[in-house]
Structures are given as C-alpha cells and as structure tokens.
C-alpha cells in the first residue's frame, strides 16, 4: 500500500482532535475562569531510503533521502492567560488578577483549584463554590486542623482550612479586601476572617482539568505554593467582578477554518492514493 494513504489517515485523526479542542473552547466562551486549549502537531518517524555520505577530493557529499510517514499530536496545551474581568457588583464574586488559583476542599481529603470566583455562604456559614465545595483560607501556624502548607525545608508553616462565619444570618456589611480577608459586622462589632488562600504553580499548564471549572495538581505542575493574595506575586482578589473565559472567538473561527481545510486536504491525499491503486489493479486487464 502507498505510504501517502497512511500519512493522510494520521493527518485526519490529528485534525479531528484539533476540531474537538476548538469545539470545547467555543462551547466554554462564557464559562467563568475557563482557560482555552491549543493543539500542536509534530511529524512522525521518517523512513530512510539512503543515508548521508561525506564528500572527498573527487566528489561531493550526498544528503540523506527520507520519506515522512505522517504527523502525530505533540501537545494539547492549556493557555492560562488572564481573562477579562466582568463587573457584577456582587460582593462574593471575586476575580483573581494574577496567575494564582483559589483552593477548595474536594471532600475526600484532597485539594482542587479553580479560577471561577462566584462564591456563596451556605446555611452553616461556610464559604463555598457554586457546586458546594468549601473554599479554603490560609491560617498561619502548625497546630490548626486543615491541609498543611510546608516551606522549602519541609516544615509546616500554615494550614489551609474552610472559611466559616458563625451566625451568618445575622451578619451585615460584608466586604472582601484585595488580600483575601473577608470583613463583616456582627452584633455591632467589625470582624475579619482568615484570608482566602491563593495558590501558585511553577507550571500552570501542567494542571489537569477534572470538570466543573476545577483543576488538580500533577507531577508536571511542581509543588503547590499556597499563600495569601498580594503576597509572592500570586495576584490580588477583585471583589464585585468575575474573570471571563480567555477564548477569542475570532481566533477560534480562524483555527476552525484551518483545521477544516487541513482535514479536506488529507482526505484528498487518500482519494488520490486510492485512484493510483485502482490504476495498478486495472493493469491486469
């Protein structure tokens, strides 16, 4: 069989994957905190017909002769650029201006991360996400219960724990500062909570999407660096706003056209290869 037919098949599969990613980007164009994906390709192994040779005094060298065998996926990247901020005027809507992530308890002893800041207080006074997971705050000290935060030496320096306000029904004058502290009034007293935790990673692209606007850390992200907003370059919280998706529709539509034409070109390769094989079969007649 012709090598070009298998090269065309590999190209079709890759452009199908590219269209899948583009479709997901467009579907999430209005998803708060969504980070778009990008597909890149690389060539597959090439078959060497003849190797290279060096020249001598009588004749020059010869370059290698190789035939490529198609393409394959190089990566599906998550592009974590800052999305635009949409003003909502709601105090518990918070956007992160920077490259950090909110930390939430997954309910099974683990931590998930998100950029979607549409938060609520439940009936027990816990600060939760739209799907009910507890948002974690940053409490300095090594004795408090919660998820441990360690320094470079491995020592526990703080804990991540759910943020809770007692008697939430009687609370008034809620506000969220840039450093993540939630201020409120209760019984005539002005009180603060522990600051909302924010986490940075050495490689944000290594985060794994698990659905519902959540990510989990992987071996590629490096060790999560938890802290508070405005410290360590993780960014600040902007109350009354939400971060929109960073999907650019004009860019996605352009990539869609490129993927469509690339898919069509690869189908044409298969059609042409089939016609050549048909001519070979007809030689018998």
UniProtKB/TrEMBL annotation:
Domain named Flagellar hook protein FlgE/F/G-like D1: residues: 95-183
Domain Flagellar basal body rod protein N-terminal, first and last residues per copy: 5-35
SUPFAM superfamilies tied to this protein: Flagellar hook protein flgE (SSF117143)
Domain Flagellar basal-body/hook protein C-terminal stretches: 239-283
Keyword Aminoacyl-tRNA synthetase included in the entry's annotation: no
Location in or out of the cell: Bacterial flagellum basal body
InterPro entries associated with the record: Flag_bb_rod_N, Flagellar_basal_body_rod_CS, Flagellar_FlgE/F/G, Flg_bb/hook_C_dom, FlgE/F/G-like, LlgE_F_G-like_D1
Any one GO CC term of the record: bacterial-type flagellum basal body
UniProt keyword list: Bacterial flagellum, Cell projection, Cilium, Flagellum
A single GO BP: bacterial-type flagellum-dependent swarming motility
UniProt superkingdom: Bacteria
Function: A flexible structure which links the flagellar filament to the drive apparatus in the basal body.
Family: Belongs to the flagella basal body rod proteins family.
NCBIfam families referenced in this protein's UniProt entry, alphabetically: FlgEFG_subfam, PRK12636.1
Name recorded for this polypeptide: Flagellar hook protein FlgE
UniProt source species: Siminovitchia acidinfaciens
């Amino acid at each position: 069989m012709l090598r070009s037919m298998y090269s065309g098949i590999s190209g079709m599969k890759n452009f199908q994957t590219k269209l899948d990613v583009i479709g997901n980007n467009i579907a999430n164009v209005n998803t708060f905190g969504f980070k778009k994906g990008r597909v890149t390709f690389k060539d597959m192994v090439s078959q060497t017909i003849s190797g290279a040779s060096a020249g001598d005094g009588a004749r020059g060298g010869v370059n290698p002769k190789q035939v490529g065998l198609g393409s394959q996926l190089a990566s599906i990247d998550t592009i974590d650029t800052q999305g635009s901020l949409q003003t909502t005027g709601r105090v518990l809507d918070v956007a992160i201006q920077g490259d950090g992530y909110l930390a939430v308890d997954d309910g099974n002893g683990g931590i998930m991360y998100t950029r979607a800041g549409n938060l609520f207080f439940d009936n027990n006074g816990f600060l939760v996400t739209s799907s009910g997971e507890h948002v974690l705050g940053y409490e300095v000290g090594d004795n408090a219960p919660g998820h441990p935060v360690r320094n470079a030496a491995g020592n526990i320096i703080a804990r991540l724990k759910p943020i809770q306000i007692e008697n939430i029904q009687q609370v008034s004058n809620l506000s969220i500062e840039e450093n993540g502290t939630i201020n409120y009034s209760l019984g005539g007293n002005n009180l603060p909570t522990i600051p909302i935790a924010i986490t940075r990673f050495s490689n944000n692209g290594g985060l794994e999407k698990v659905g519902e606007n959540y990510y989990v850390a992987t071996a590629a992200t490096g060790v999560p660096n938890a802290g508070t907003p405005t410290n360590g370059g993780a960014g600040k919280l902007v109350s009354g706003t939400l971060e929109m998706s960073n999907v650019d529709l004009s860019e996605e539509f352009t990539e869609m056209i490129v993927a469509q034409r690339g898919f069509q070109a690869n189908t044409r390769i298969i059609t042409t290869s089939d016609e050549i094989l048909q001519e070979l079969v007809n030689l018998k007649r």
